[in-house]
Design brief:
This protein is an alpha+beta fold and 146 residues long. It contains 2 helices and 5 strands, in the order βαββββα. The chain has one domain: Roll (Thiol Ester Dehydrase, Chain A).
Length: 146
Amino acid sequence: MERVTLDFPTTAIIHRHSLTVRVTDMNYGRHLGHDALISLLHEARVHAFAALGLPEWDMKGYPSIVADLAVQYQHEARWPDALTIETAVPEPEGKALTIYQRICNAETDKVVATARVNQLLVDLTSGRPVSIPDKVKLAIAQARGA
């Protein structure tokens, strides 16, 4: 079986967000379900970009859409585990923002999962992806300390 392997870019971290596994996040295996994990990633990603003044629905004039998602599951999480979700964004290339997220158990430091999302900014008039605006690139670079 081929497994997804993702390398989290620690030098590109722009935000850290704390969340707790809720009882409603549990699946029949009594651990964090994959659907809930994706929701936690989305919550942390929204907070990360909002902290930069870039809400996902208006990134300097353009809404964003998720083009694809890859997740590498590494350890289980259970209710009521405290989690830290780190969001990292390398220098944007072309028309995609590649966003990495790493979920860690805040008490044990074990990595629960690593994810990569490619997001596109879309011109609502044409419905087509646009190049990442310089103002977006600058906000991300400043958050990385670059």
